[in-house]
């Protein structure tokens, strides 16, 4: 009892504050050593004592640390908390940084889940494709799922043909054209119509740009384009385009003066 009476009112022992915040006494000792949070007082018996203000500071440290902030970054937040404005300012900055960190973590989680789906669909271990998928996810390329269908030669061609900037530009044009084609499909525009044929020509031009003169890639690309991916919700969009353009391409090719596959057919 004498030991408890030695604790002044309004103070907590190191064990009490550690229990309240779910940390260890050793952690608090480390924070003291690092200059992040030192006891506000010491009892007559030499016990380290903390206040409610220290509890608020400790909550701040624990919250930021759980989100991956370094101790050096956290130290920058350790400013005077003498007025409501001081406290509000620190909490506002902390909340902003937490929101940003949550957004980053949410993006990382989404990329992990998407990569996991691709890994399971590929059914074979291929770290080269995994790396390409990760890069395309970070580029916000919605067509990243097509990578699993490409062979090594096609992927090597893509790496040599596009850097990040040109790749993002190409995919932006491809996605905008895809939106245009889906809109035509929704409106029931006939494959033989001028609007649809113009879209087919643009689509074919993009395919030729992608191939960069390597006509041996065309059959591969057309084969990938014909893959039935309707079972995967994310890929059903591409199947809609494929199904709509298939008869339109037949009309388009029939009007060309020469067979575009003539140079690559055996």
List its traits.
single chain, 266 residues, 12 helices, elongated, 65% helix
Describe this structure in words.
By secondary structure, the protein is mainly α. Helix content is 65%, strand content 3%. The chain has helices at residues 2-5, 14-21, 25-33, 52-66, 71-75, 84-122, 127-138, 152-161, 164-186, 194-211, 217-225, 236-255; strands at residues 12-13, 41-42, 48-50. It has a three-stranded antiparallel sheet with strand order 1-3-2. The longest helix is centred in the middle third of the chain and has 39 residues, at 84-122. The radius of gyration is 31 Å and the shape is elongated.
| Backbone CA Rg | 31 Å
* Tally of individual helices: 12
| Strands, count | 3
Q: Between the first and last Cα atoms, what is the distance in angstroms?
A: 97 Å
| Order of adjacent strands in the largest pleated sheet | 1-3-2
Residues in helix, %: 55-70%
The main β sheet shows up as: 3 strands, antiparallel
**What structural class is derived from the secondary structure elements?**
mainly alpha
H/E element sequence: HEHHEEHHHHHHHHH
Principal-axes shape call? elongated
Give the integer mean of the pLDDT values.
81
pLDDT below 50 for ≥5 consecutive residues: which ranges? none
Proportion of β residues? under 5%
